[in-house]
Design brief:
2 domains, Uridine Diphospho-n-acetylenolpyruvylglucosamine Reductase, domain 3, tRNA(Ile)-lysidine synthase, 331 residues, Rossmann fold, five-stranded antiparallel beta sheet, alpha/beta, ATP-binding, cytoplasm, coiled coil, tRNA processing, elongated
C-alpha cells in the first residue's frame, strides 16, 4: 500500500526547518533545540529530529527549568522524555532566576538565554528557537505601542549571531501558532500549556488574547501576517542603513582621550535618520550602552542646533562639542 500523505502542518514545519538549516553558510555538526514542552518548541523539536537525521546532523534538546512554578522539574522531565521519544538527545538545565527591575518575565528570559548560551558555546552549535509568526506579530505590536522606534519594530531576526559568537535561529517565524499545534496533534505529541501564557498580568498575553483578536475582528483577517511583513521590511531597511553607516563611519570617527569623537560637519551632511544611527552606533560600540530616542536627539542638537550648550550626560558617558567634533567620553 502507498504511504499515507504527510500531514500539511507537519510538512510546513519540516520545510521551515529544512530551509533554515540549508540557508546556513556552513552546515553545523550539531544543533540544539530550545524545548519548553509547549506546542511551538515541541513541533520544532519533532521537525528538527526528522530534518537533522536526514542531513546527518546531531540534534539534541535543552529544556531550561526556571524553578518558578511548583512541579517545574516534572514538566521539564516530561519535555525531555518527549525529545528522547523523537530520537534526539535531551538535557534538562535548572537555573536560578535573579530578580531585577526588568520584571519576572525578562528575568526568566535572561536566565534561560544564559543557560542556552553556555551549552551552545560548549557544543559549538547553533540554537533553534520556536518563535512563530504570531510571536513576531506580538513583538511588533508591543514595539509600536511603546513608540520604541524602528529597531523594535524589526521584531526578531530569523538568524542572529550574538557578541559571544552564539548563533540563534528561528525557523518558524513564517509559521502560525495554529500550525504548530496541528503538527503536534498529527504526530501524537501532547504539548504542555504554560499557565503564564494565559496570565493577563503579562503585557504580551494581553496583546495576544485581547488586542490582536480585536484588530482582526475590526480591520479584517491578516493582521498578524501584516505585522510580520512590516518587521521583515524594516530589517531589510536596517541592513541597508547599517551598510551605509559602516562605509561612512571609518572616515568620520577618531579616538579621543577616554573615548571617541565624530566629525560634526560629517554628521550634519547626513540625513537625520543616518545621523541618529551613527550616534547610536558609536555609543553602543564604544561604551556598550543603548541610547533612547530623546538622548539621541539631544546629542544630534550639538550638530544641528549648536548654541554653546554644555556636555550632555548619557548612560556611561558624556557627549560634548569641542571645535568641529562631537566628543564622547567615559564618565
Amino acid at each position: 500500500m502507498p504511504d499515507a500523505p504527510l500531514n500539511p502542518a507537519v510538512a510546513e514545519v519540516r520545510l521551515a526547518v529544512r530551509t533554515a538549516l540549508a540557508a546556513l553558510p556552513d552546515r553545523p555538526a550539531t544543533v540544539i533545540v530550545a524545548l519548553s514542552g509547549g506546542a511551538d518548541s515541541l513541533a520544532l523539536a519533532a521537525a528538527t529530529a526528522f530534518e537533522a537525521r536526514a542531513a546527518g546532523i546531531r540534534a539534541f534538546s535543552v529544556t531550561v527549568d526556571h524553578r518558578l512554578q511548583d512541579g517545574s522539574d516534572r514538566i521539564a522531565a516530561e519535555a525531555s522524555k518527549k525529545a528522547l521519544g523523537l530520537g534526539i538527545g535531551a538535557l534538562v538545565q535548572a537555573v536560578t532566576v535573579s530578580a531585577t527591575t526588568d520584571g519576572p518575565e525578562a528575568d526568566a528570559r535572561a536566565a534561560r538565554y544564559a543557560a542556552l548560551r553556555g551549552i551552545a558555546q560548549r557544543e559549538d552549535a547553533p540554537v533553534l528557537l520556536g518563535h512563530t509568526l504570531d510571536d513576531q506579530a506580538e513583538t511588533v505590536l508591543l514595539g509600536l505601542a511603546r513608540g520604541s522606534g524602528a529597531g523594535s519594530l524589526q521584531g526578531m531576526a530569523p538568524v542572529r549571531t550574538d557578541d559571544d559568537g552564539v548563533r540563534w535561529i528561528r525557523p518558524l517565524l513564517g509559521v502560525r501558532r495554529t500550525t504548530t499545534r496541528a503538527a503536534c496533534a498529527a504526530e501524537g505529541l501532547e504539548p504542555w500549556d504554560d499557565p503564564h501564557n494565559a496570565d493577563p498580568r503579562y503585557l504580551r498575553v494581553r496583546a495576544r488574547e485581547r488586542v490582536l483578536p480585536v484588530l482582526e475582528a475590526e480591520l479584517g483577517p491578516g493582521i498578524a501576517e501584516a505585522l510580520a511583513r512590516t518587521a521583515e521590511q524594516l530589517r531589510e531597511d536596517a541592513e541597508a542603513f547599517d551598510e551605509m553607516i559602516h562605509e561612512t563611519i571609518e572616515d568620520i570617527v577618531e579616538h579621543a582621550e577616554a573615548g571617541i569623537s565624530v566629525s560634526a560637519a560629517a554628521l550634519a551632511a547626513n540625513p537625520a535618520a543616518l545621523r541618529n544611527r551613527i550616534i547610536r552606533l558609536v555609543v553602543q560600540s564604544e561604551f556598550g550602552v543603548g541610547l533612547t530616542r530623546r538622548q539621541t536627539v539631544e546629542v544630534a542638537r550639538l550638530v544641528t542646533d549648536w548654541a554653546g550648550q554644555g556636555p550632555i550626560d548619557l548612560p556611561g558617558c558624556t557627549a560634548a562639542r569641542r571645535g568641529g567634533r562631537i566628543v564622547f567620553a567615559a564618565r
